[in-house]
Amino acid sequence: MANRLKAAALAVYHSTYEPALALALGRRRIVGFECAAAGGPPEIMIHPHRVAGCGPACGFDSGERRRVVARYALKPRGEGPLDRTLGRAARRLSLTPMAIDLARFASVADYEAVVKRRSSRTLPKIRKAGKMGYAAERFSVHAHVYDIHAVRTSLRTRAAGPVLDYWFLKPEDVAKPAARPATWRMPKCSRHWTLWWGVFLPEPGHVQGRVQVDRRLVAYMKLMRIGDVLHYTDLMGHGEHLGHGVMNLLHDAIIRWLIESEEPLVEGVRVVLYGAAEHGGEGLLTWKKRAGFEPIRLILAPAPDS
User: Cβ distance 227 to 47 under 8 Å?
Assistant: First the structure.
């Protein structure tokens, strides 16, 4: 029931409220970023489509991925006067994606320099969380259904407003719980996949249903790769642990993975996308800024066969 209510509410929100939100807040929300003085957000052409090597198990054709592209990416503008006018109007009514351009960072040190320049407290928070025993890694959602439920029902309100899950979510709405120890599985397509990352604390004897896991999930993030875009599509931390920097730790671990790993899963990822500048309040926007995100216009490249 909770998932159906959320889907219905989001459909209305995306189609009617977000264009008005973009029109009202778009320009104001980018004032604190460097791009405001440069005439507006930079543009990056993205390539989310299937390619020859994707294979029959590729997940690009799922409705969720196509909805993300439609929500955050713009079609290229034409060269004529009418095209330019319509293009400007489309931008005024479209969300301003908050993203990280990984092409800017040859190393993790380059990324950390940006984070440090924007806030002197972020990196110390991450180091402190590590010293407290928190650790981030990939996991199977089926192995931690009850922990995810506890996270999602730990607060009545968050940065984006009231949390419907607090009242309506049941563990079975999250996923089917594993009946035995479970680990994450390698996706079948390296360009289109969904993986879960989490922050854990060791806890001997901790169980999920009847399965002993010996650690507690206190924050998580659902990552969706769509071609050269990696979308933070679902992320949340337990209310009792947010003050310990667990979300900063999780984000930092993922960025390190993207920059340093030679896994095929991350090869070719250029853009890390986390919602829009218009989403949430000033606190969420500040968190994104300190984490290295900035306003960027995503332009949809033509499909390879078009």
Answer: yes
- Give a yes or no: residue 306 inside a domain: no
Average pLDDT value over all residues in the chain: 90
Q: Return the H-helix or E-strand segment holding 191.
A: none
Residue 305 falls within a domain, yes or no? no
Nearest by Cα to 65 from 228, 176, 220, 183 = 228
pTM of the model: 0.90
The length of the chain is 306
Other beta carbons within 10 angstroms of residue 212's beta carbon come to: 11
* CA of residue 23 relative to chain centroid, distance: 23
Residue 42 has what DSSP assignment? Answer: -
The tokens of 93 are what? Answer: 């009514």
**CATH value at residue 156:** 3.40.630.30
Give the integer Cα–Cα distance in Å for 18 and 222. 22
Q: Are strands 297-300 and 43-46 parallel, antiparallel or unpaired?
A: parallel
Determine, yes or no, domain membership for 110.
yes
Q: What is the DSSP letter of 121?
A: S
User: Which residue range forms the structural domain that includes residue 215?
Assistant: 2-300
Does residue 76 sit within a domain?
yes
Domain count across the chain: 1
For residue 288, pLDDT over 80 is answered with yes
Q: Which stretch of DSSP H or E encloses residue 60?
A: none
Task: Say how far apart CA 116 and CA 123 lie, in whole Å.
Answer: 7
Average pLDDT of the residues in 236-257 = 97
| Dihedral sign computed on CA atoms, order 279, 282, 287, 290 | positive
Contact between residue 93 and residue 23 where contact means Cβ atoms under 8 Å apart:
yes
Bridge partner list, 136: 199
